[in-house]
């Protein structure tokens, strides 16, 4: 058996969001039965990622674990919180965030393509982050989605930085869009998805989970990171 896969989500108080993440953890475990998968969270509730990492047994050789962020951009939680969680365990590796990635763009594009009409505007709606690098990741995803759809894609955040999703929708209407499609760039239902549904768009897509391509992306991040030598090895 290889290193333990610690799948770390943000955390939410919404029971539907918690159930969605738990289902994703179960789907990852079912897709890789040879791998031990442990659930962890970086905020809101436990099990806290630092506690899960600290409890990992030391491996005889190679990495003991790989923390895979169930997060769409490399913001503060990935660069600071998760980095701190593994800092005391050189035998535990930290994988990159899930996005930007063409597979996520494919999920978004597939959901929009069935609804997109001539004259429509598309706005990508991430949760939002104060970290400019996370914002850059979201903007890159919007460009990738625009290239896939053959139309410009704006960005509007559920919370945090400007423009808000509601402002981006209003701006698209003011620019002459017949309809505005808001592409949810969230993983699970909860508070942020609710904000998107109140942003005034004609169409709001659902969160990315459940989705087999996201499960495969998690496993790819795990395998690519786990095959690298552990620090100090």
From TrEMBL:
Gene3D superfamilies: 3.40.50.1400. SUPFAM superfamilies: Chelatase. GO terms for molecular function: lyase activity; metal ion binding. Keywords: Lyase, Metal-binding. Pfam families: CbiX (PF01903). The keyword Cell cycle does not apply. The keyword Metal-binding applies. This is Sirohydrochlorin chelatase. It comes from Phycicoccus endophyticus.
């Amino acid at each position: 058996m290889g290193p333990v896969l610690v799948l770390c989500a943000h955390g939410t108080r919404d029971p539907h969001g918690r159930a969605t993440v738990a289902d994703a953890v179960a789907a990852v475990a079912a897709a890789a039965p040879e791998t031990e998968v442990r659930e962890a969270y970086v905020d809101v509730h436990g099990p806290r990622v630092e506690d899960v990492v600290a409890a990992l047994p030391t491996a005889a050789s190679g990495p003991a674990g790989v923390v895979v962020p169930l997060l769409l951009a490399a913001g503060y939680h990935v660069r600071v919180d998760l980095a701190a969680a593994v800092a005391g365990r050189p035998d535990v590796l930290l994988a990159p965030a899930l996005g930007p990635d063409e597979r996520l763009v494919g999920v978004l594009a597939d959901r929009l393509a069935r609804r997109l009409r001539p004259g429509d505007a598309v706005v990508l709606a991430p949760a939002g982050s104060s970290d400019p690098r996370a914002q850059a990741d979201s903007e890159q995803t919007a460009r990738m989605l625009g290239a896939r759809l053959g139309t410009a894609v704006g960005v509007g955040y559920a919370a945090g930085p400007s423009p808000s999703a509601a402002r981006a929708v209003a701006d698209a209407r003011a620019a002459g869009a017949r309809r505005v499609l808001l592409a949810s760039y969230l993983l699970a239902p909860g508070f942020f998805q609710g904000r998107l549904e109140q942003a005034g768009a004609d169409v709001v897509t659902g969160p990315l989970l459940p989705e087999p391509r996201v499960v495969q992306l998690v496993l790819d991040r795990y395998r690519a990171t786990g095959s690298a030598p552990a620090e100090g090895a």
